[in-house]
Amino acid sequence: MQSNPYDWIDESLATIHKADWYRSVQTIQSIPGAVVKLDGREVINFASNDYLGLAGDERLIQAAINATNKYGTGSTGSRLLSGHREIHRELEIAIANLKQTEDALVFSSGYLANLGTIAALVGKRDLIIADEYNHSSLKNGAILSGATAINYSHNNIEDLHKKLEQHRQKYRRCLITTDSIFSMDGDLCPLPEILAMANSYNAMVLVDEAHATGVLGKTGAGCVEHFGCTGNPIIQVGTLSKALASLGGYVAGSSILIDFLRNRAPSWIYTTALSPPDTAAALAAIQTSQEQPQRRTQLYNNVNLLREALKNNLPHLKLLPSESPILCLEFPTTKDAINAGKKLKDTGIFAPAIRPPTVPTSRIRISIMATHKLAHIQQLVEALENID
Ligand code: PMP
User: Where is the Aminotransferase class I/classII large domain (predicted)?
Assistant: First the structure.
């Protein structure tokens, strides 16, 4: 019988459409910023992870141009072969200084940093205990590692305790993994309690600072700094692609951890090194974020302004708990969230709906930037007033 082995893809796509889970891209046609041109029209941008507003900054652009002129466009190989440049090391030293760790290692994305680090740290005889809302890269890192992965309920220390008590002793090593700021909720992990728990059960802790780097803590070092946990033996992973406005990821920790990862993390060893312009832009972003702490002050002024306006003017909208520039409004159904996203777009506001399977419940995710003006936030609040 002649059959087409690819028929199932059509059927699978039809199921995705039926569930309202189908996703497509929207085209930004301008430099990133608080206002962007989206599909031919100017909109106020509440959909970007460029929290400090650095992705269109002249200093970063110049750094990328200078690095391209000096080193070319591509790194041409993996770090251990022909891909390593002195700016990779300069960036690693800058990350380690920011995080106050002995060393750091730059990966080609945050996703790859999580995959490679988890796969290097644990294997078949080991246990991962993970927050159920962890980012996809942490979940897939756990699968890649071959370790037994058990979830604890979101930010629930009692449940973490229960899972450690039930399972820890059956395994060789144990790794607790958590986002610091949860990317699709905006709330924060209870890091000091997690560290205390890890200490009692001889477990390692990996915290994903993707959304917190540049954003949380006095110097923007992240949630570890915010909670006063700097100096603790924590494996800090993160991205260079959000507040640091470039591309790439990193791990920061002890020198022996970094030395070990350089020899064992497959997604670092067997992939092309970060390109020179991306590396230089990330380095310039760290320097700029250190020299301009007012960007973080402005970011939190904007966050507080919007949070207050949502509470006072729009109590009928369900704001999820948040301690970060990510504010999410939950809707009863996926259709409601999608319609809200469309209505906002029609009034010139870009704040898209996020829905299952990415998140358990559908929501509008609003992402605040330091470079939003008061008028932008007022326009968002006015547009939300027309949504029920
Ligand atoms: N971790 C978290 C929590 C994230 O939100 C993201 C990006 N969405 C990543 C890791 C992956 O980072 P990158 O985009 O650099 O691959």
Answer: 42-384
- Mean pLDDT confidence for 354-361: 90
Residue in 223, 241, 359 to alter for ligand 1 test, most ligand atoms within 8 A of Cβ:
241
Same domain, 39 and 68: no
* CATH code for position 261: 3.40.640.10
**Any idea what DSSP says for residue 361?**
S
241 shares its domain with 350: no
How is residue 30 written in tokens? 């301008």
* 49 in contact with ligand 1, CB cutoff 6 A: no
Q: How far is the CA of 81 from the centre of ligand 1 (A)?
A: 26
* pLDDT (tens digit per residue) in 140-180: 999 999 999 999 999 999 999 999 999 999 999 999 999 99
- Residue 195 and residue 248 in one domain: yes
In a domain, 283, yes or no: yes
Q: What is the pLDDT averaged over residues 100-108?
A: 98
d(CA 182, CA 178): 9
Give the global pTM.
0.96
Is residue 140 within 8 Å of 115, Cβ to Cβ?
yes
- Does residue 238 line the site of ligand 1, with CB under 6 A? no
* Predicted complex: ipTM over 0.95: yes
